Amino acid sequence: MRLERVTPKNYEAALKLSVREDQKDLVASVEHSLAEAYVYGEHAWPRLVYDGDRLVGFLMAFVDLPWKDPDDTDRRSGLWRLNIAGKEQGRGYGTFAVEAACAELRARGTIDFYVTYVPRDGGPAPFYRGLGFVPTGEVADGETVAVRRL
Ligand SMILES: CC(C)(COP(=O)(O)OP(=O)(O)OC[C@H]1O[C@@H](n2cnc3c(N)ncnc32)[C@H](O)[C@@H]1OP(=O)(O)O)[C@@H](O)C(=O)NCCC(=O)NCCS
Questions:
Q1: Is the pTM above the cut of 0.90?
Q2: Mutate which of 22, 24, 127, 147 to test ligand 1's pocket (most atoms within 8 Å of Cβ)?
């Protein structure tokens, strides 16, 4: 497994990546995330997840992002998006992606690595719990905020 940058050669394949139909409320599309990556510039770290030559997922980390609005002095880092292709789930790619994002941000000096997720049955809460994320008690745009200390 490895991460790759989004490039002129792979971005069209990336745009076709899709989670299961019943999971589409859980995460924004790759298209939406790449638009945000453009707008947020240095605060966004988008990467594709490959298994050999097979594209299996997309992740985007956020780096020192003003948390609530552009003037917020509370700046945080963590995982913004994680989309593992529907038919590729359950094979360890999500775990690999989270660990890779943690390693990148740890190397940049991040101590607290945040994630937010939709708190519904069938959502990713158990996945993040298994990776050591603990809810902070905050809710952001209806999503549970959780943190893992790096
Ligand atoms: C959540 C998601 C990223 C997990 O990726 P994945 O590649 O399937 O996860 P892994 O194969 O690494 O699974 C690791 C563990 O988490 C568990 N797990 C994964 N998704 C789960 C879920 N939705 N509910 C319960 N357990 C889950 C796996 O069973 C596995 O458990 P094990 O270690 O006991 O075998 C993926 O299912 C996905 O893209 N879901 C839709 C979009 C989404 O919710 N993204 C997160 C937005 S914040």
A1: yes
A2: 127
pLDDT, tens digit, 9 for 90 and up, residues 93-129: 999 999 999 999 999 999 999 999 999 999 999 999 9
**Alpha carbon distance 88, 113 (integer Å):** 25
- The answer, yes or no, to whether any atom of ligand 1 lies below 6 A from the CB of 19, is yes
Give the chain's domains with CATH numbers. 2-149 (3.40.630.30)
Q: Hey, what are 58's tokens?
A: 């997309």
CB distance 117 to 123 below 8 Å: yes
Residues whose CB is less than 8 angstroms from the CB of residue 62 and which lie 6 or more positions away in sequence, other chains included: 40, 43, 44, 45, 76, 77, 78, 79, 80
CA 32 / ligand 1 centre spacing (Å): 21
